[in-house]
Amino acid sequence: MEFVILKDFIAELSIEELYLADDIENVKIYNNEISRPGLQMAGYYEKFVPDRVQIIGNAEWHYLKDMDDDKRKEVLKKFYSYPIPLVVLASGLEIFPEMLDLSKENNISLLRSESNTSKLINDLKSGLSLKLAPQTTVHGVMLEVYGIGVLIIGKSGVGKSETALDLITKGCRLIADDLVEIRRVEDVLRGSCPELIRYFLEIRGVGILDIERIYGVGAVKQFDYLDLVIELEEWDDKKEYDRMGLDEEKIEILGVSLPKITIPVKPGRNIAMIVEVAAKNNRQKRLGYNAAEVLNERVKKSIEKRKSQAKD
Question: At 1, is the pLDDT very low, low, confident or very high (cuts 50, 70, 90)?
């Protein structure tokens, strides 16, 4: 996204609203940087970036508190003369009357949080980073499979949701079915589900299932980071499928490369079990152990040993 609408962002913050601008639905935030305007309170505006969210922490608050009323009003009046999208007081600090008056006069939203300054900055920055992150929507199912974020893709009717249901009964957690929202946060991908269909799973012949209601809160998860993509496809007798796993297939989503496994589907194959073991094997690879490479090395050493014995 190129910007975040302030009204939507504030709705998710769950902190005290002291004043909301009357055009809040039109106020846009374009970056995730957060500023503490200590230098501006001291009169230095040369490098001031007013389009950021501004945090008044303990240092700024006490600096303002030590001023007389006229001086504080003068300092705040200049600060509020800039097109600031949002001002937030940290640590439940007392509001200066001049600050509230100037917020209303300049139509700038003012909030107050009980969180300390460091936590508040981290929370706001994380929230903005997620909102502003590049995103896409993928048709598939996403689950957490024993600590690994797995995206299952494939043509409609190939058995993605049925495989997911089987995995849920084994203790895995559903993140999204049908539509998976993927956001790139720095260099990792985070998958979640649109709120409208969150925790629902469609099984042909049965209908819509509420996984949270049927299996409990432990069977669902709001989001997870994506580690592995598995594509299910109908078994093709003419196609040569990978049997060793030495040549890793990759897929690129939002510029991030992820390992991808293609699993052929046919009657009698336990696809859920295969997905489960693929996730566990992927975790072993991330920890530095590749079973295919270990076996390959053993075979090479065995061949070399036999050649050496033949020469002797």
Answer: low
Give span(s): CATH 3.40.50.300, the chain: 134-293
Question: Which residues have C-beta within 8 Å of that of residue 193, sequence separation ≥ 6?
Answer: 142, 175, 176, 177, 179, 180, 181, 199, 222
> For 33-61, what is each residue's pLDDT tens digit?
999 999 999 999 998 999 999 999 999 99
Question: CATH 3.40.1390.20 occupies which residues in the chain?
Answer: 4-131
> For the structural domain made of 4-131, what CATH number should be given?
3.40.1390.20
CATH number for the segment(s) 134-293: 3.40.50.300
- Burial class of residue 62, CB neighbours in 10 A (0-12, 13-18, 19+): exposed
Residues catalogued as catalytic? 139, 160, 178, 243
Q: Higher model confidence: residue 171 or residue 268?
A: 171
Residues 54-90: pLDDT tens digits? 999 999 999 999 999 999 999 999 999 999 999 999 9
Q: Hey, what amino acid is at 13?
A: L
- Report pTM: 0.76
Pairwise CA distance, residues 138 & 154, whole Å: 11
